[in-house]
Amino acid sequence: MIPNTGSYRLANARLHASLTPEFGAAFDRDGFGLADIAVADGKISSITAHGRSKAPADAIDLAGRIVLPCFIDCHTHIDKGHIWPRKPNPDGTFMGALNATGADRAARWSAEDVARRMDFSLRSAYAHGTRALRTHLDSVAPQEEISWPVFETMRETWRGRIELQGACLLGIEGVRDRRWFDSLAKRVAAAKGVLGVVTYMVPDLEELLDHVFAQAIQHGLDLDFHADETDDVAAISLKKIAEAALWSGFEGNILVGHCCSLARQPDLDVLDTLDKVAKAGLAVVSLPMCNLYLQDRRGDHTTPRWRGVTLLHEMKARGIPVAVASDNTRDPFYAYGDLDMLEVYRMATRILHFDHPVADWPQAVAATPARVMRLDGFGTLAAGGDADFILFKGRSWTELLSRPESDRIVVRGGRAIDRQLPDYAELDELMVE
Ligand SMILES: [Zn+2]
Prior knowledge:
By secondary structure, this protein is an alpha/beta fold. The chain contains twelve helices and 16 strands. The chain has helices at residues 94-108, 111-128, 143-158, 178-190, 205-219, 237-248, 267-280, 288-294, 312-317, 341-352, 367-372, 397-400; strands spanning 8-16, 32-40, 43-49, 60-61, 67-69, 71-76, 130-138, 163-169, 195-199, 223-227, 254-258, 283-286, 322-324, 389-391, 409-412, 415-416. The N and C termini lie far apart (45 Å). GO terms for molecular function: cytosine deaminase activity. It comes from Mesorhizobium qingshengii.
């Protein structure tokens, strides 16, 4: 359908207002407008309202199919991905995930093991239409010395197909060993990575956060936290991060993931936290599939009674940038998943109510994470931008989100890519117990 010449005209494409700067079309109440898109030399040369001028006879008529910019996945763990067959979660709980992953890491995460699983993950993400991806990298000693060089090689290998970012990952108590943590921060800076930690309610949390911010300022690093991935109402590390950001005068980007406990807290506490999060300029990413899997798992023969996700609507209403992302794939933290951001958006629509109205929620998988990741020109469709987009069969939200859209066409640099997914059997030899 898409000519391999890299120069053509698409007529009658359905674009979403929130991901397309004004091009003169009338948008309907779902935010859609019909457009003609001209592509030349791998770039979008123009986007015009459909019907404004007569499309040339050789234009490809998309008959109202939805076209979205390629996805931006701002929170993943491709160093953990696909270990499930050799290390499943024994009971589906968060502690079960933590312990299983820790044991697998210590025993199995050689450079080759990590590299092959990472590459598998990136091929899946690419085939589904993802253009940029941030992964956390378990950086508990001695894993940081194995995984960061693998990440740096992988980033080079994938440049031009997937823009790869890395953030270190360790429990906040790891910051107590100042010498080790400072050397990790230096290593992350050398790799042009992002400084990340997991926060929970340790007695010295404020002091440790101060040190994390001081290191980020010293090395000019952006920050990325896992915060409050629990139903414990006493978990308020999101608020502590916002306070630390305010009093340190930090000017970089801060992304905070999960924030599950916020949804369980009394309204007045929530309002106070959200005020601080907005004032401090934090962005928040929700991981709906992982939260649904791990949260509210109470033991045998019980049914979960909450969805596990944080308060994205209330955050967005306050101007806090909000995103959704994949998180884990086929590892003890999440038994499923394939780094398909359409699946994430579909699940988010159902779990988080990204509808009635859809409004600008599509930005949560494209334009917003692109801004948080400092990726100029990513996550939107605009004249002069790269011709990196996805052509779906669906012509409305209900059509788009009701089927897997396995036959979507992913266009990169103006050309349709080969969307072959890697075969699970490739990893079999790494899965022998
Ligand atoms: Zn995560």
